[in-house]
Design goal:
Length: 266
């Protein structure tokens, strides 16, 4: 009996010690499992690049514009000196044929003559000049577009009131005035850009945005429309006008008279 009474406390203390050890080991095991589960997940997540949508504003691109136009299939350079339309327009005997062609394109003599004269003064390919006017206003001298920044684009070449503050409101709707400033501005853009496609982008979005690689995506669509319409004009010109003369020679009056009787289907 005395032996029993002496060993009971020892057994009790041993049991408590075992329980404490088991509890401690269990806790350590749980901690180890949690750490093992968390650390790999952090390593994996850190290896994946994350792109924040806030780094780009809507409709803006960070890529170089030159890369974009190449991917879209546009040609960035084109020799102005070899433009057939300009060459023929500058020859007195063939000028009538060029006027005839573009008169049937626009359906309005005042618009046609205004674009032809200013394009020639600024050494701009005729098909490019007419394609720009078509894309901007559909040859509508009364076209008006109100922008989100509260500025207004008006007229044949959609001149912006903030870009041309010297113009009176009626001036914007005058095709001769619109062509004068539209063509001179395009020439400025072509001189800065060095090629026609980038110049068109500058005409639409502004030189600052294009040169800083913040060209709106909508501008690429805009340029595409101009180039597509221009190609159509060049193709029709080659079909309707070019076969009747060699652009390096004077066109005969007989050929001009014959062209005047041709029907042109827009």
């Amino acid at each position: 009996m005395e032996c029993t009474d002496m060993t009971q406390p020892e057994t009790s203390e041993f049991g408590k010690s075992c329980r404490n050890s088991i509890i401690f080991c269990s806790l350590m095991l749980v901690v180890a499992i949690i750490v093992a589960a968390v650390l790999p997940a952090k390593d994996t997540a850190s290896s994946i690049p994350v792109v924040s949508a806030s780094t780009e504003t809507e409709n803006e691109i960070a890529a170089d514009f030159g890369v974009m136009i190449e991917e879209a299939g546009f040609t960035a350079t084109r020799a102005v000196s070899g433009d057939e339309g300009l060459a023929l327009y500058r020859q007195p005997s063939s000028r009538g044929a060029v006027e005839w062609f573009y008169l049937h394109v626009t359906g309005n003599r005042d618009i046609t003559m205004a674009i032809l004269e200013e394009a020639e003064k600024n050494n701009i390919p005729l098909s490019l000049a007419f394609a720009l006017a078509y894309t901007e206003s559909r040859y509508n001298v009364n076209a008006v577009n109100r922008n989100k920044n509260a500025s207004i684009d008006r007229g044949l070449f959609q001149l912006n009131n903030r870009s041309f503050p010297q113009l009176e409101e009626d001036d914007f709707f005058n095709p001769a005035v619109s062509a004068k400033y539209g063509m001179s501005h395009l020439r400025f853009c072509m001189n800065v850009a060095g090629n026609e496609v980038t110049a068109l982008a500058m005409y639409n979005a502004g030189t600052t945005k294009v040169r800083s690689n913040n060209t709106p995506q909508s501008t690429l669509v805009y340029v595409g429309k101009i180039m597509a319409y221009r190609e159509k004009l060049d193709r029709l010109f080659a079909e309707e006008v070019s076969p009747y003369f060699d652009s390096s020679r004077q066109m005969s009056g007989i050929s001009v008279a014959f062209l005047g009787n041709r029907k042109f289907d827009r």
